[in-house]
């Protein structure tokens, strides 16, 4: 992993990013309805995140995208709360600390845009993801926030952004 870098998504990354996300969702057995799998945004993530308070990042290793994640305002609570969105890593990217690096990149961006809290939705069986979220200060919520449309995601977490 010597040529590893985290960078902002570019238009030419769209197809590869969609493949990464869908491959991980299929691998994890995620329902294709009521989750990110069916989001129309997956096919043009670059355009989806062209907004002053949104950004999507990719992890590239030797010209191959191996992970990705984004920050966007949470629908219904746009002023204060952002959402960590579509954070997925191919198997070769896992267990190397890249999740922590990506989380740090995303949360720094969120803070720089004036968000006070960051929200995440995930699935109960995504244990490694939940472990990373807890490690970086996210706490479980009793019910969902905002309006994501991901009714099959039944684990909700929130973190206050310091500084």
From TrEMBL:
- SUPFAM superfamilies given in the database record: Acyl-CoA N-acyltransferases (Nat)
Keyword annotations of the record: Transferase
**Carries keyword Membrane?**
no
Residues forming the N-acetyltransferase domain are 4-162
Q: What is this protein called?
A: GNAT family N-acetyltransferase
**Species of origin:** Autumnicola lenta
Lineage of this protein's species?
Answer: Bacteria, Pseudomonadati, Bacteroidota, Flavobacteriia, Flavobacteriales
């Amino acid at each position: 992993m010597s040529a590893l870098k985290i960078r902002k998504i570019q238009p030419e990354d769209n197809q590869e990013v969609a493949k990464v996300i869908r491959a991980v969702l299929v691998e994890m057995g995620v329902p294709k309805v009521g989750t990110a799998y069916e989001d129309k945004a997956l096919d043009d993530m670059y355009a989806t995140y062209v907004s002053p308070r949104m950004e999507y990042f990719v992890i590239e290793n030797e010209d191959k995208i191996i992970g990705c994640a984004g920050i966007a305002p949470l629908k219904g609570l746009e002023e204060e709360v952002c959402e960590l969105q579509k954070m997925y890593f191919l198997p070769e990217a896992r267990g190397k600390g890249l999740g922590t690096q990506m989380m740090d990149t995303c949360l720094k961006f969120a803070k720089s845009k004036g968000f006070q809290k960051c929200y995440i939705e995930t699935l109960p069986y995504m244990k490694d993801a939940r472990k990373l979220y807890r490690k970086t200060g996210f706490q479980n919520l009793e019910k969902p926030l905002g309006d994501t449309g991901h009714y099959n995601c039944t684990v909700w977490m929130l973190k206050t952004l310091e500084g």
